[in-house]
Amino acid sequence: MSAYDVLGRYYDLLMQDMDYEARADYLLSVLERHGEKPGTVLDLACGTGSLSVELARHGREVVGVDASEQMLAQAAEKAAAFPQGQMLFLLQKMGEIDLYGTVSAAVCTLDGINHLLTEHDVRRAFERVALFLEPGGLFVFDVNTPYKFRHVLDGNAFVYDYDEIYCVWQNAFDGESGICEFLLTFFEQEKGRYRRQDEAFAERAYGDAELRGWLRDAGLAPLARYADLSFDAPGETEERVVYVARKE
Question: Where is the Methyltransferase domain positioned along the sequence (predicted)?
Fold first, then answer.
């Protein structure tokens, strides 16, 4: 089974409270604030394409990249339902992106960077982003903070009860390695019975100094660090932090 096969089928259901329109508006305001010359946007770890569609609704040409075939199939369906949008979806890992040309901006939202579990993987992703950004292009991404892993996720479980599925989402954070393990147990209705399927994945917590250092090493100059969906400086209990960097 490929990564996110089960989660991919139910991702939109589990994320139904996420306001992608507001997130797209925010990202575009960040790009405008930092002087982007509007062009094509690369949506890294685009998942099922909800954010890509919202960016396309604003008239932006979007290239979405994700490593999950299951999620990209749903992204393609959303793109087909919005034919006036200019969207292209590619099955690629973040550290292996290979585009047909350059982009004016790249975004990676909802802790996509945290899914990269080693320094090498993060550095490689930053390098590939820098390679395909136009000179002066912007990279905007967010990360789950160490605070969130330690104080919000660790040891907690979340239950989702819908007609289609019953899902238990468990979390365990190892402070020494910085790795948070997620175990999702799905119970799917099938011919009057429930079928259990488990899916596991992990995220890693990264500190501000190391992220900024790796950006600089990739030729991306850090410009700003914001609390999620705002232009305020992050507080000590911030759960998600947004970074902005420019290709030098």
Answer: 41-137
Q: In the numeric block, which tokens belong to residue 242?
A: 């947004």
Q: What is the CATH number of domain 147-203?
A: 2.20.25.110
Taking only the tens place, the pLDDT of each residue in 193-245 is: 889 999 999 999 999 999 999 999 999 999 999 999 999 999 999 999 999 99
For the beta sheet containing 103-108, the strands, ordered from the edge strand earlier in sequence to the opposite edge, are 87-91, 62-66, 41-44, 103-108, 133-144, 240-247, 220-227
Angle between helices 50-57 and 20-33 (to 10 degrees): 60
Judge contact between 212 and 153, C-beta under 8 A.
Answer: no
DSSP code at position 151:
I
- pTM, two decimal places: 0.96
- The CATH 2.20.25.110 domain(s) of the chain lie at 147-203
**DSSP designation for 124:** H
- Residues 129-159: tens digit of each pLDDT: 999 999 999 999 999 999 999 999 999 999 9
Distance, CA of 134 to chain centre = 21
SS3 155: coil
Q: For the chain, where do the domains classified as CATH 3.40.50.150 start and end?
A: 5-144+207-247
Report the distance separating Cα 22 and Cα 34, nearest Å.
19
Write down the CATH number for the domain with range 5-144+207-247.
3.40.50.150
Tokens 């899902």 correspond to what residue?
167
